[in-house]
Amino acid sequence: MFYIVDVHNNIKKLRSQNGLSQEKLAKETEVTRQTINAIEANKYDPSLSLAFSLAKVLGTTVDDLFGEKND
């Protein structure tokens, strides 16, 4: 049996709270600004390695970056 999980990300919120632009976050994680934009828009799922890098730069955990939506 498969379950579909509706996942959201908090990257934009945490990026803003940390005073980082998409460009600065991209440089810190060694990706392009377009990649950060696509992740924030839920158009691209980052690799596990990138997810850990994002969490480290944003001072949080992968679990806090990406989680199940609670409606």
Task: Please tell me how large the radius of gyration is.
Answer: 12 Å
Enumerate how many helices there are, as a single number.
Answer: 5
The name of the CATH architecture is Orthogonal Bundle
- Sum up the overall morphology in one term: globular
Mean pLDDT, nearest integer? 90
**CATH class group:** Mainly Alpha
Span between termini: 23 Å
Strand order of the largest sheet: 1-2
Domains (count): 1
What is the assigned CATH homologous superfamily? lambda repressor-like DNA-binding domains
Q: List SSEs in N-to-C order.
A: EHHHHHE
Q: Which fold name is given in CATH as the topology?
A: 434 Repressor (Amino-terminal Domain)
The helix content is: 40-55%
Low-confidence region ranges:
none
Number of distinct beta strands: 2
Strand content: 5-15%
Main sheet? 2 strands, antiparallel
Look at the helices and sheets and give the structural class: mainly alpha
Helices and strands, with pairings:
Blueprint: E1 7-9, H1 11-17, H2 22-29, H3 33-40, H4 48-58, H5 62-65, E2 66-68
Antiparallel strand pairs: 1-2
Helix pairs in contact: 2-3
Describe the structure.
The chain is mainly alpha-helical and 71 residues long. The chain has a single domain, classed as 434 Repressor (Amino-terminal Domain) (Orthogonal Bundle), CATH 1.10.260.40. Helix content is 54%, strand content 8%. It is built from five helices and two strands; from the N terminus they run βαααααβ. It has a two-stranded antiparallel ribbon with strand order 1-2. The two termini are 23 Å apart. The mean pLDDT is 90.
